[in-house]
Amino acid sequence: MMKIGVQLYSVRDEMERDFEGTLKRVKDMGYDCVEFAGLFGRSAAEVKALCDAYGLIPISAHVSLDDMREDPFVLQTYAEIGCKYVAIPSMDTNDRPGHPGFEKTAQDMAILGAFAKKLGMKLAYHNHDFEFEKVDGKYALDILYDTVPADLLLAQLDTCWVNVGGADPVAYIHQYKGRVEILHFKDFAGKKSENMYALLGVNDGKKEATVGDFEYRPLGQGLQDMPAIVKAAKECGTEWAIIEIDEPSRGKTSMQCIKESIDYLKTII
Q1: Coil vs helix vs strand at 3
Q2: What is the mean pLDDT of each run of 10 residues along the chain (269 residues)?
Q3: Which residues are CB-neighbours of 237 under 8 A, at least 6 positions away?
Q4: CA 55/CA 76 separation, integer angstroms
Q5: What is the end-to-end Cα distance of the chain in Å, rounded?
Q6: What is the pTM for the complete model shown?
Q7: Is the distance from CB of 153 to CB of 124 less than 8 angstroms?
Q8: CA distance linking residue 225 with residue 230, whole number of Å
Q9: What is the radius of gyration, based on Cα positions, of the chain?
């Protein structure tokens, strides 16, 4: 059975305020594991000790490609914590397929993937919707996964962004069967809109949200066919279901959103 985790970026406000207390509350909600998005000044030993104390598996971490390029030994930190995966959370425009920096990016990812393997971990890539732009008739995300071998780069598909990008999350999970060991479960409402990237923390000067615009939602409260996604994940060997909610919505706190999400996911998983 898939284990359920949370990307701690979802509760970054709480993590910054009370790192240890937030881990305890996450465990009390019923989460099996956590995926880090920064360590908030804690050492690897401190983080490992806290995860051990509360019975949480430190399954993964998001680490930027630039950080790993600057210091590949940042991977050692997460190996010491006990992470099984490290995921690249995004790519800058110049690094993407169809842009001048892509060849070097693919080479760097392969090198980092090999280094992660030596440390007992696996490197993955986490998509947004922009990887569903087509380059010579092919999705940029597919070009990335075709270029970097599967044994060096797993596919941490984000089911929300697959959908927003115009693809079917269920079909995409099946397309990368065996490569989607760790999957992001994320729900949303509305449609692709001008304010969307403001929700990613990008201040692009776009207008404020209006009714019908894109909005993150707790699982089961949006447009995603979550039972079908769960079924596909099980059929394709996914081991870790990671809940992520980039911003709280519907007037709820970040902690309320992840609690409602795990409560729902447990009814269908």
Answers
A1: strand
A2: 97 98 98 98 98 98 98 98 98 98 98 98 98 97 98 98 97 98 97 62 46 88 98 98 97 98 98
A3: 177, 178, 180, 181
A4: 22
A5: 8
A6: 0.94
A7: yes
A8: 9
A9: 18
**In what helix (H) or strand (E) does residue 48 lie, and over which residues does it extend?**
helix 44-54
Residue whose pair of structure tokens reads 């809109």 in the numeric block: 193
Under CATH, what is the fold of the domain 3-186+223-268? TIM Barrel (3.20.20)
Contacts with 171 (C-beta within 8 Å, 6 or more apart), sequence order: none
Of 178, 181, 157, the closest CA to residue 169 belongs to: 157
Collect all residues with Cβ–Cβ distance below 8 Å to 247 and sequence separation of at least 6.
199, 216
Backbone angles phi, psi at 80, to 5 degrees: -65, -35
DSSP assignment string, 103-131: HHHHHHHHHHHHHHHHTT-EEEEE--SGG
**Residue 267 one-letter amino acid:** T
Distance CA 156, CA 124 (A): 6
Largest CA distance in the chain: 51
With tokens 């000044």, the residue in question is 41
Tokens representing residue 53 in the block: 């104390």
How, if at all, do strands 33-36 and 215-217 pair? unpaired
